[in-house]
Design brief:
Elements lengths: L8 E8 L5 E8 L5 E4 L2 H16 L11
Antiparallel strand pairs: 1-2, 2-3
């Protein structure tokens, strides 16, 4: 059973070693299909914060979704 305030995200993390070691990430909101890219773990955490702040705002129903 899914609750009204439940959000689902897909998070993809990978480690790049070409220019030293750095973690990269991508986060996608399954409901909207919106995807954002992060060049480090701090940026990824900031993306989560932004998503949560956006979800706190009222939003119209959308037909978009996972792409």
């Amino acid at each position: 059973m899914q609750r009204k305030n439940t959000q689902v995200y897909i998070v993809h993390l990978w480690k790049e070693t070409a220019n030293g070691e750095a973690w990269r990430g991508r986060i996608q909101n399954v409901r909207t299909g919106q995807t954002r890219i992060a060049s480090n773990l701090d940026e990824l955490a900031n993306l989560f914060r932004r998503y949560f702040q956006e979800e706190a705002k009222p939003h119209p129903k959308t037909e978009k979704g996972l792409k």
